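Write out the 3D structure for:
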Amino acid sequence: MAGLPGQLFASPLIVGEKQPLYVVDMQKVIDNSIAGKALRSEAKKKLDAFKKEFSRKQAELAGLRKTILKQSSLMSEEARAEKVRDFRRRERELADQIKEKRDAIIKQNSAKLKKLVSHIDDVIKELAVKNNYALILEKDGRLILHVNNKYDLTDKVLKILNTRKTGL
């Protein structure tokens, strides 16, 4: 390990017999693929239905609150306390339902996204084997500052992925 400090980084990284490094912008593939767009659309529909369902339930609770407030002067202390307890119980139940439903939607979407990423990985591996690419990196702006477009495989991966059925 004799050498000058920093010598490792003084020359460009060369893989094998001077093969270039390639990159793929995974986020662009996910965002622009047919499967990725379908995933996003499906998630939006589920979230919209979720919001609609629970805003109706929240409106019902708001109506119940108004009713309790209007009738509270006519109720005994015991009856009023019972109505308030019942209202708070319903409020907690609704909050729990909202959390459970939101978590289920997120979990389901995450599982489908993971499956899509797996399909993308398969396409990248096939491309690497077919073209004898030694190394393909994920294009990440925090790690890779610049790449000549001829070494960016994103569009090729997207084109191949869009010809396949992903079964999501």
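Residues 44 and 50 are 10 Å apart (CA to CA).
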